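Exam review. A common question shows you a sequence with its structure tokens and asks you to describe the fold in words. Practice with the pair below. Do the first one on your own.
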Amino acid sequence: MDWESRVSYRKAAPMRAEDQARIKDELESRVAQAYTRRTEQGGPRLSEVLEDSLYHERRRLKEDRGSPKREADNHFWDQVQAELRRASETTERTLLRRVARHYTEEIAGNFNPRVYQSVTRALPPALGLLLNAVSPLKLVRKLPELPSIDEQVVIQGEVEHLHRLHDLGTVIMVPTHVSNLDSIIIGYALYRMGLPPFIYGAGLNLFSNPLISFFMHNLGAYTVDRKKQDPFYKDVLKEYATLTLESGYDNIFFPGGTRSRSGSIEMRLKLGLLGTGVSAYVHNLRRGAPQPKIYIVPATLSYQLVLEAETLIDDFLKEVGKSRYIIEDDEFSRPRQVFEFMSKLVSLDSKIHVTVSRGFDPFGNPVDDDGQSHDPCGRVVDTARYTWRNKEPVIDADRDAEYTREVGEQISQSFLKDNVVECTHVVALAVFGLMRARNPRLDVLRLLRTGGSDEDLELTAVYREVERLLNELRAKAQRSEIRLGPSLSGDATEVVTDALARYTSYHNRPAAQRRGDRLVPSDRNLILYYQNRLEGYGLQPFPALTKDHRALSSR
């Protein structure tokens, strides 16, 4: 039975209240014991750990004056500080557990199966009706059948493989991260695939709206406050994820950490949460879990247009992403703009592709449909041996970090291979390539600021460059190095015309537009943003981004 015929299939949905309570208690105990053990082995004293937490949280609260929990948090840390001044070792251990519980209560999700069932039943036709209302003729042609968002979200790739791994163990899905819409799209894709909701960490900024917060909490999300720099908080967060995996709850981690500011495929991943896969597997082996295996499955989300493109590329170019880290006010925070963006997807028949890749074990080995791991020579391997010390499974921080780095490399390669490239990316790459070729002495940033020597480009030159790129991309697609979207099925003229229509349809200032027999790069930043989706494929002689896609190339 293929996956499309079993979309009504459901397992018991997370998270059961009794499991949530047990996880909170176990997390508090496990983290406290780990820190006490470090102290006994010569590490930082518990008082130093607590003072460090106080410092980081006081600093955060001083800067984050808009936080709705600011008063309550200040009160909590006032109490911790007062008790810490005269604390004995016993009191320090008690305080550490209180801080762990404080963080845990903030992080923990509040899944409600009834809310999930209601929303997933109502969302597809309601959203489909809303979106298709922008095209009345399209709506009338479909009556009496109501339209659905299914037409805009294309699910492809190794879906059956994902189902098999889900049945054999616990899955960590690791998607690319382009937009704040990703959580909604990936959650809906899992529903359409007939899988239960996965638990996932979502940025605290997404919980600021009470209505969105209600649904996020009740659809499997737990909060991740990226403004918190306290190392103890990060350890609590990782332990929470580890315990949910040990309890058999599938997870979604966005390994890019935050949305790709540049628009490129993530090539340098944040591996902290990803490393919980090894830890959960070791704990499962220790307690003899019936299905101990953890599987990591990449998923690539591909958009023709991106809702927050202007804000993201502006943030990237100002080189303040690291200091701001969370963009508080962007297109996603404006409901009218979200509606406009989604309605344009329908009116232009734009697709959002969710491509599921083959899975890996937590050590970077590929796995087959029976959940067996294979080494580089194709031989089946016993992954339990990877964790052994004196034939007992143990956690080794340095060893496990190396395993996780290998997994990160495999994920990045899967992202590149299953990236669906569209006309908006190819035309942007062609335009930016021509601009750079005509201004060889200008670095990328100066070219973006000035536009170089020419205000526009000959349309015939753009057609020729697009044709060259199409030929290279089609060859790569035949070698399974990339995927081509339906907008690239025509010739160069059709691809350029389609891309220009899409640029104009949504963005206030189009990335590029036609004027007679010339093409004008109207918004060079957007041109860079969309062309960056094709960085890493060697399609231009000089890349626009550094190898890890975190900065502009020096040339």
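Now try the second one, then compare your answer with the model answer below.
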Amino acid sequence: MRSSFSTQSCALKFCQENRKGTIIVIFVDMSEIIRLLPDHIANQIAAGEVIQRPASVVKELVENAIDAGAQRIDIHIKDAGKTLIQVLDNGCGMSEIDARMAFERHATSKLSSAEDLFNLRTKGFRGEALASIAAIAHVMLNTRQEGHEWGTSITIEGSQITDQHPVTCKTGSCFAVKNLFFNVPARRNFLKSDAVEFGHIEDEFLRIALAHPDLKFSLVHNDQVIYQVDEANLRKRIVDLFGRSHNDRIVPIGEQTDIVSIEGFIGKPEFAKKSRGEQYFFVNDRFFRDSYFNHALTQAYDNLLASRTFPSYFVFLKVDPSVIDVNVHPTKTEIKFENDREIYAILKSAVRQSLGKFNISPSLDFEQETSFDLPWDMNNKPVTEPTIQVNPNYNPFTSTTTSSTGKGVSNGNSPALKQAGFGNKEAEKVDWNSFYKIEEENTEIQQTLSSSEEEIAFEEELKQRNTFLFTDNYLISSIKSGLLLIHFRRAKERIIYDEIMQNFLVSPLNGQHLLFPVSVEMSAKTLGLWEENVLTLKRLGFEWERSDKILNFTAVPSYLDNDQTVSCIEAIQQKLEVRQLDKGEIAHEFILSIAKAASRQKYRWNQDSANNLLESLFLCAEHQYSPGGKLILKTISNDELYKQF
């Protein structure tokens, strides 16, 4: 057969001898530009999808340990995973050949045919995790199967196996991932600070630890134990991870249907937060995100939530693996449901039923007997017969009042009326005339008093004209052009914010030492964030002592009183959990939280304090808007007022 291209423009690619002995020569046109990528480059590209940051490595290695049947998993982190990520488990381990094959692309023990994709009950299944990790890091694996005398040690650097030899080790596997992204410097430069990256690692740890309360987990960062939990039920696992206070903040939820089985816990409405931090959905023990189901759960709370607050929930769904698709996203956090509408309705109904069952939502019970309802403090008191005390000497007609004019008024002129019906003498016409005369005089006195009070009130109103009127949130004053409305809480917030900001830039704020420390329980993640920003917080006046998972605040900024201290600490805690804030923004957010809390103090406003507030407000460089960008002053012109009437 004649070739369609000349040999001069071709290069010999390879030759091969087939079974019949015929030599096949393949020529490739050098003008073509499409070629196959080398394996190590393909692995680095795949790692860009699977391994986004150190938290992705932790997730993949821990999930592999769970699939290996481990009952205990220990995670050791150095420098937020940039230097070292070590995961130890007591699972089944691997043989010498399996340990080497595990780092090949698309090598997996979970799939044998395409039908297995529709019956997945394990975590990982695509076989890209270890190959992707080995392509961008230095990896060392020590593993041994139970019953084997020797284990296997493998060292890999950038997809290249540099060493493999027998080793003595425990049953299970130990992965050590060092120098992540060592050969991809651009990816390493885009990593965030250690606090941010370790926060993502904690998120992955919490998701896995919640999904498997029957396993033991520990997380150690820079030789400091952050979490250490034993096997327990789900409620105990939530309390161990998020603090003892959550034991009273959650209620169980459960529903069994042919479509889905729902279990877990939901938070009480009064403990809803201003952030979505503690919201977890799991399907078949796999964490996922779904705004559709989140809407169903939020709608079930109806009008029980405060404005701009979000409930906590830990909801576990059990469905047939054949009706879901978990291979939608590389991180497997987005899942498609075949019966999503039905699950939406069932989930919403289950949450409402749980809220009603535990008397969280208002309800009426028409069958309850209310005649035996007693106050709590009367439950243990003995039943006593009521007594009636009568003073036989009491006579209301013997008292004498004096009017404002100095005229005495007697109520007991008649002997018959004095006896109040207990005597034998009947009242005569003269007696009744005297009685009505007394009533007329009393009425005249009351009218005189009321008229004098009205005159005094009118005079005060005249004095207060063109000054301030006070409502719940506003100060109202008349000006030449109309009315001036001042939102006094926002005005106070602006004044305090500017004052703190000026002092903060020059010197540390004065902290007010507390006679009794304020104790606040926090999760290990939040405790780490407080310690990460200890210099900034101490400069603002906060001082504390740590006791396990509790911070005992011994000093707070002098702007706060006892009522606002806890709310300010909680507001700062929520700011710390927003890891997108850099060091320049975090100080501004802390000062804003202090100013907001201090502005909520209750003030007794009068004309002098209102004038002082306005003077201080107009001394601020920006007095039109609060630090949060909300309007402080509003002028209503006379023309606008005239149009309203």
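Model answer, second protein: The mean pLDDT is 77. The radius of gyration is 39 Å. Full marks require stating both points clearly.
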